[in-house]
Amino acid sequence: MVNMRWQKKLLEWFDRNQRPLPWRRKYLPYPVWVSEVMLQQTQVDTALPYYKRWLALFPTIRSLAESDEKKVLKAWEGLGYYSRARNFHKAAKIVMEKHEGLFPEKYEDILALPGIGRYTAGAIASIAFNQEKPIVDGNVLRVLARVYAISKPIDDMANREEFWRLQKKLIPKDQARNFNQALMELGALVCASKNPACAVCPIQKNCLAFKKGRAEAYPVRQKKKEMIKVTASAVVFRPRHYVHQRPVGEIMGGLWEFPEWKLVKNGRLSPEIIEELTAKHIENEFGFKPAKLKTLGTIKRNYTHHLETLWVFESSVIPSPLKGINSVEGSTKRQSWPSAWITKEEFSDYPFSSAHAKIAKMVSPARTGREFELEIQS
């Protein structure tokens, strides 16, 4: 195995080159916790504006615990993986109830909080409290796989355990905070997945992959699953906009969205057929046949092994005043979901998923409520 003196070189490099991230100023538990939850599925540059806004809205664990979930989800809008926000909210309440509002220092107590797994618990324990707990994320996996030229596929969970054991052994005494961050920082800034900057790497002389001239061959992965291409559509109604809330427990539960339908998997549809299928869905679900739909645009989104193109249409509709503006017809399960007809000015009150937040931005200024009242009465 490679000589382990490279840790000292890495720590010296980190001391000189670490990014001035806000949670590194004092390493207080709550800001570190916020950063780790946001960074679970998000790049640092993307997460930073959300981090700053989050702490402005919820400066303490108490303020988060006492906030309405709708406000919490709205603050998270655009970050995706919304279960992180809901679990964060639940965990804040538990910290208030079981730990008197103080974030727990004991690793087992941290791990017991909703939404905190092995990696996040180790990251908080080591970064906030300097405890010698291992962390293994994508950056750490990549660095270790290259330093030791580990050829076992990293997406095999049994192999992943070897990385956890190795990383724990590598932590220098009393240096867990800096060492764990240094590994991640090296992976983010130098040891990138493509075109790694080996020429400026502080531990290149200790890296087996570099010595072999095969840095990009590591880490090794099993054969990737084929991506499924999906075509979907959504509709924005006029003059007010119909939205409904997804049930908690389902994907993106608790979030609001415009009506949306999956149209085809791994198949090609012409724009005319996409519009025709969308019109049929509107008729089946809302009980009226729309006039020609107007295309507002398309949105690309990726989720587990799926590449989706979401077509967004606009349609005029006058809800029946006898049923009230919060009623819709239809035979689908969504009929029972909480729903509302709202103006664009009210969008800020509703937490949308990332794709549907983009749809909201496509909507031109809505007409006033008075114009809507006159229209449904005519």
Summary of the model, kept short:
By secondary structure, this protein is of the alpha+beta class. The protein is 42% helix and 13% strand.
Keywords:
378 residues; alpha+beta; Endonuclease III, domain 1; Nucleoside Triphosphate Pyrophosphohydrolase; 2 domains; four-stranded mixed beta sheet; globular; disordered C terminus
Question: How are the elements arranged and paired?
Answer:
Layout: H1 6-17, H2 29-38, H3 44-57, H4 61-65, H5 69-76, H6 83-98, H7 107-111, H8 118-129, H9 138-147, H10 157-170, H11 176-189, H12 208-211, E1 228-238, E2 241-245, E3 256-257, E4 260-265, H13 271-286, E5 294-303, E6 306-316, E7 339-342, H14 354-362, H15 369-377
